[in-house]
Amino acid sequence: MVPHILIVDDDLSIRDAMQEFIETSGYEASVASSAEEALDVLSGNTLEVVITDIMLPGMNGLELTDRIKSSHEIDVIVMTGYSTEYSYEEAINKGASDFVFKPVRFEELLLRLKRVLNERRLNQERIHMLEKLKKLSITDGLTQLYNSRHFYNQLKGEIERFNRYGHQLSLLLLDIDNFKDFNDTYGHLEGDKILVCLGRIIKSCLRKMDTAYRYGGEEFTIILPGTHGEEAWTVAERLRAAVAVEDFTDGKIPDLEITISIGVTQYRREEEISSFVQRADQAMYQSKQAGRNKVSFILDGDDDG
């Protein structure tokens, strides 16, 4: 995509000459004669760089720079013919990426523009890479659900919100029934396919506010903010039923039945994270003991279903 540059100057001859030069240099260019007009242009266009004179009618170029940097991811190059009244430091402190003096040599301006655009590209690539690395650090590579490390960080945050605002909070812990036998019979590659498919099913059964995690091996956890235990049991039962009817191998392994056992619990004020998770694990174990492919709900350490 060709970078889009906005030129802000109240001198028509300078504005038009600069626009022609920038467009001839291979960029898209728009113009504005005042800061207010520039803000209107910004509201309706995607721009990379604004080149603005400091001396403008109404709002000056430094004020414009401040407004731009407070609400847009756009670089600003500031121009001035008053070298003694405005300093490089003032412009940079307002968020400008560069500062040039009038009369501007267009060849010099082009070099500065290219440098700003290059630094902008490198910074965006750096941000993208950091976001990618962050996502990788909290994501299970196989199922693309969150990993167990992120589970505890997220659960801690949800508990803090519970204690502050009193919102309900429930937790599901589930395990694939007889998964070791499946791996022993069909191999770990086929087992991985089951885990991937289960991850997709889990995502399809949740709301946007819910988050799912691969807890370890064939165990998964689901955090349900704003949800009391009875509602969480309904979510768990919907998930259990969806797994029970799923053909995980597209008919390649006839008569294969994959089921899950789920434990459900809700958070008690001021309890430790370990106690909360352990209670969900106990509920899941009850589902195993009751014959698997079941949902069990434990509240306050007692069996509620």
From TrEMBL:
Superkingdom to which the source organism belongs: Bacteria
Keyword Phosphoprotein: yes
Keyword Phosphoprotein: yes
GO (cellular component) term, any one: plasma membrane
Keyword set, alphabetical order: Phosphoprotein
Listed PROSITE patterns: GGDEF (PS50887), RESPONSE_REGULATORY (PS50110)
Reactions mediated catalytically: 2 GTP = 3',3'-c-di-GMP + 2 diphosphate
One of the protein's GO biological processes: negative regulation of bacterial-type flagellum-dependent cell motility
Enzymatic class: transferase
Xref: InterPro entries: CheY-like_superfamily (IPR011006), Diguanylate_Cyclase (IPR050469), GGDEF_dom (IPR000160), Nucleotide_cyclase (IPR029787), Rev_trsase/Diguanyl_cyclase (IPR043128), Sig_transdc_resp-reg_receiver (IPR001789)
Domain GGDEF, residue spans: 167-300
Response regulatory domain boundaries: 4-117
GO molecular function list: diguanylate cyclase activity
EC number(s) stated in the UniProt entry for this protein: 2.7.7.65
Short name of one Pfam family: Response_reg
4-aspartylphosphate PTM positions: 53
Matches recorded under NCBIfam families: GGDEF (TIGR00254)
Protein name: diguanylate cyclase
